[in-house]
Amino acid sequence: MNSPAVGHGIDTAARARSAALEQQILADPPRFRVLTGERPTGALHLGHLIATLASRVRLQAQGVEVFLVVADYQAITDRDASGDLPGVVRGVLLDYLAAGIDPQATTIFTHSAVPALNQLLLPFLSLVTVAELERNPTVKAETAAAEARGRRGMSGLMFTYPAHQAADILFCHGNLVPVGQDQLPHLELTRTVARRFNARYSAGRPYFPEPDALIVPTPTILGDDGAKMSKSAGNTLELRATEDETVRFVRRARTDSERHITYEPDRRPEVANLLTIGAHFAGTTPEALAEEVGPAGAGRLKRVVTEALVEGLRPMRARRAEAAAHGPEYLDAILRRGNARANQIADRTLDEVRDLMGMRY
Ligand code: ATP
Ligand code: MG
């Protein structure tokens, strides 16, 4: 999962389909409903921002309806929830607002507050086989990790998570899911569930959409230790970081011993990472930024990246401060509103699903 470059291993048909979708979004944004989200396992970081949050904000600005699930049930697939879950959830919410998610336009909800969504898991699980669940890349990786740990296995919730994801997407008839280049297979099970449900219970008038993948460029952002930035690795630049912490992050970031700056993600991952970060905030491409810095070397590159990053994060810090100043009640009210809307939609979907399945009593 550690391929930093854009353009590796993408199925060309899927890419062409995504390009066509981008055109359709521009022409008719209300046709689309996006579902995506996060497990609330910690504060969001620069990797999340560049790889996922930025594209959500873009879709929101284009007038596409966006649903964000704070997947608290999925937070307990591989850990217990005894930590400060409400605190983490509020933190993620603040990260969203800081990144530019508008809670008036976008529905933000938590799994646990939407029972009808979770109930869809039962019919959906009946539509997939154990072998299909085992083929999911995350389940596969978890199976390998569980074997490496010896006798500590993976939870049943983790094993069935692809079907839970199908419920997340289909409860609101989501038809567009932004995914990174490695994540195409993740969506496959949702498409299978929709297709089989329609064939079995709703032939003639397909009830669920088969959601499309919108492939968004998702470079893997590296942490200050040169490994993939991740909450659990402790190598992140959190979106809530101060300006000083931001400056220190770039100062600590690794480069290499070659003076001339070039964008070669496979050969020079650390330099490519700084170029990716800098280009994201400067509104240019890593290649163009490399061209610009070129012979001036790593010192110059770090100065350019620091400036772009500090400038780019400044408005986010301001939005965070503004939202935080309203107090926790403000955040709770946003969640309550999102949960109410998600419940309304999920209740209707579950009703219709039970109708189609002949479960009318
Ligand atoms: P954990 O350490 O708990 O796994 P994480 O920091 O890796 O946390 P996840 O919640 O696993 O974050 O990531 C959710 C999604 O965010 C990923 O599927 C991916 O799209 C994106 N993402 C996370 N980290 C990065 C990163 N370093 N670079 C690019 N995208 C990332
Ligand atoms: Mg992770």
Ligand types: adenosine-5'-triphosphate, magnesium ion
The SSE order reads HEHEHHEHHHHHHEHEHHHHH
Low-pLDDT stretches are 1-8
State the total count of DSSP E strands: 5
Shape: globular
Instruction: Report, as a whole number of angstroms, the end-to-end distance.
Output: 48 Å
Rg over CA atoms, rounded to whole Å, is 21 Å
Largest sheet: 3 strands, parallel
**What is the mean pLDDT?**
93
H/I helix tally: 16
User: In which order are the strands of the major sheet placed?
Assistant: 1-2-3
Task: Describe, in short, the structure shown.
With 361 residues, this protein is mainly alpha-helical. The protein has 16 helices and 5 strands.
Descriptive labels:
mainly alpha; binds adenosine-5'-triphosphate; 16 helices; three-stranded parallel sheet; 361 residues; binds magnesium ion; 5 strands; disordered N terminus; two-stranded parallel ribbon
Your description of this structure?
The structure is a single chain. This protein has a three-stranded parallel β-sheet. It has a two-stranded parallel sheet with strand order 4-5. Mean pLDDT is 93; it is low at 1-8. 38% of the residues are buried. Helix 11 (184-201) links the parallel strand 4 (176-179) and strand 5 (212-215). The protein is 56% helix and 7% strand. It has helices at residues 12-27, 46-61, 72-75, 85-99, 115-119, 121-125, 130-135, 137-148, 156-159, 161-170, 184-201, 243-252, 269-282, 286-293, 297-325, 328-356, and strands at residues 33-38, 65-70, 107-110, 176-179, 212-215. It starts with 11 loop residues before the first helix and ends in a 5-residue tail after the last helix. It is built from 16 helices and five strands. The chain is mostly helical. It is globular. Bound molecules: adenosine-5'-triphosphate (ATP) and magnesium ion.
